[in-house]
Design goal:
Uracil-DNA Glycosylase, subunit E, 6-stranded mixed β-sheet, two-stranded antiparallel sheet, about 10% strand
C-alpha cells in the first residue's frame, strides 16, 4: 500500500474518531483532547486505538481483532498437610492407633432458605419416620384440681375446669334489695318525710340534687300528681316550679279560682331522672309506696292526674293518654280510694298550645266536682 493511501485511510479514521468524540461529549462523557500532529507522527499506534472504539455508522469495516494472549496456567492445588502427632514423652507408653469404628453419621443438615426463591421456606430436617406429638399431653386430673383450688378465679373471669376446659366463673351476686320500710306507720306527712330520709331505694339518688317530696295543704280536697321533677325542681326541692309549674299555676287560678297553696302537689317519683327521661318501671315501683302513703295521710276527695307517665303508673296500665284524657277513674290505694280525672301535662301544653282547649274542659269538669262537694261523675 502506498503512502498516499495510508494517509487517506488515517484521515478517514481521524474524522470518524472526531465524530464519535462529539457524540460522547453530547452524552455527557469526559474525553481527553487528541493532538492531530501526534497522530500523524505515529500512524501505526493511533490506528489500533481508533479501532478499539465503536466506529460511527459511516466508518469503513474494521480489520479482524488481534488474537488474545493465552492465559497463564494455574498452579496445582496444595496438598493437605499431614497430621502431626507428638511423640510420647519419656516414661509414657505410646497410645495405640485408633481402631476403625463405625462410619460417623453425616453432619446435620442446616435449615437454609432457597437463595433465589424467597417464598420457599427452610428445609425440614429428616426425623427418620418419627413425628413429634401435635400437642403436649394434659396433666392428670388431680393436678388440675389442685391448681384450680390453689388459684380461685375472680368473679366474671374464665377459669380452668377439672379437665382443662374453659369454664365461666359464677357471676357476682347482685346488690341486695333495700331493707323493707313500713310506710304505713307514719300518721302525718312530717313523719313520712323523716322515715323516707335521704332515700337510696333506686339509682335516681346517684345524680339528684335534692329529693322532691311534695308541697301544699296536708288536708287538701284536691291532690295533683305529676310524673317526676325537672331541672328546676331538682335544684329547689319543690314540685312544679319551672315553666310547667307556672302553667299549672295559671290553670288553677284562671279556671279553678285558687292557687297551689289550696291543693297538695306531688310526683310519682321523688328524684329527677337524668336528662329528664321517663322514669323506669323499677324506679316507679320503688317510689309507689311513698305516693300511696301520701294519699293515705291526705285522703283527698279528688285527684288530678297530669300526663301519660303519672296515669300509667297510678293505674298500672299501658293505655295511652290521648284516649284516657278527660275520663274519670277510681283510684284505689292501700287504705282508701278517690276519684281521679286524667288530663294532659302542662309541659305538653307548652309544646302544643292547641291542646289548652281540651285541658280547659277537663278543669271545668273538676271545678264542677269540687262545687258538688267532691262528688265526681261516674267513671267513664
Amino acid at each position: 500500500m502506498s503512502a498516499d493511501a495510508d494517509r487517506a485511510e488515517l484521515a478517514e479514521l481521524v474524522r470518524a474518531l472526531q465524530a464519535h468524540l462529539a457524540w460522547e461529549r453530547m452524552c455527557g462523557a469526559q474525553v481527553l483532547p487528541v493532538d492531530p500532529a501526534a497522530v500523524a507522527r505515529a500512524p501505526s499506534a493511533a490506528a489500533p486505538r481508533a479501532e478499539a472504539r465503536a466506529p460511527a455508522p459511516s466508518s469503513p469495516p474494521r480489520s479482524a481483532p488481534a488474537p488474545r494472549a493465552p492465559e497463564p496456567a494455574r498452579p496445582p492445588p496444595r496438598a493437605a498437610a499431614p497430621s502431626f502427632t507428638p511423640p510420647p514423652s519419656a516414661g509414657q507408653p505410646s497410645a495405640p492407633p485408633p481402631s476403625p469404628g463405625p462410619p460417623s453419621a453425616p453432619p446435620p443438615q442446616r435449615s437454609v432458605a432457597h437463595p433465589q426463591r424467597p417464598d420457599v421456606g427452610p428445609r425440614r430436617p429428616d426425623l427418620g419416620g418419627q413425628r413429634p406429638p401435635l400437642a403436649p399431653q394434659p396433666p392428670s386430673a388431680p393436678a388440675l384440681v389442685g391448681a384450680a383450688s390453689a388459684a380461685p378465679a375472680r368473679p366474671g373471669q374464665l377459669s380452668l375446669g377439672a379437665w382443662g376446659a374453659l369454664a365461666a366463673a359464677p357471676p357476682p351476686a347482685s346488690a341486695p334489695p333495700p331493707p323493707p320500710v313500713d310506710f304505713s306507720a307514719p300518721a302525718d306527712l312530717e313523719g313520712l318525710r323523716a322515715l323516707l330520709g335521704d332515700c337510696t331505694r333506686c339509682g335516681l339518688c346517684e345524680k339528684r340534687d335534692k329529693l322532691v317530696f311534695g308541697v301544699g295543704d296536708p288536708a287538701a280536697r284536691l291532690l295533683i300528681v305529676g310524673e317526676a321533677p325537672g331541672r328546676e325542681e331538682d335544684r329547689r326541692g319543690e314540685p312544679f316550679v319551672g315553666e310547667s309549674g307556672q302553667m299549672l299555676d295559671r290553670m288553677l287560678r284562671n279556671v279553678l279560682g285558687f292557687g297551689r297553696e289550696a291543693v297538695y302537689i306531688a310526683n310519682v317519683v321523688k328524684c329527677r331522672p337524668p336528662e329528664n327521661r321517663d322514669p323506669q318501671p323499677e324506679e316507679i315501683a320503688r317510689c309507689r309506696p311513698v305516693l300511696h302513703a301520701q294519699l293515705r295521710i291526705i285522703r283527698p276527695a279528688l285527684v288530678l292526674v297530669l300526663g301519660r307517665v303519672a296515669f300509667q303508673a297510678l293505674f298500672d296500665t299501658s293505655e295511652g293518654i290521648t284516649r284516657a284524657r278527660g275520663s274519670w277513674r277510681t283510684l284505689r290505694y292501700p287504705g282508701g280510694e278517690a276519684r281521679a280525672l286524667v288530663t294532659f301535662h302542662p309541659a305538653y301544653l307548652l309544646r302544643e298550645p292547641d291542646a289548652k282547649r281540651l285541658v280547659f274542659e277537663d278543669l271545668m269538669a273538676m271545678a264542677r266536682a269540687l262545687a258538688d262537694g267532691g262528688e265526681a261523675p261516674p267513671p267513664t
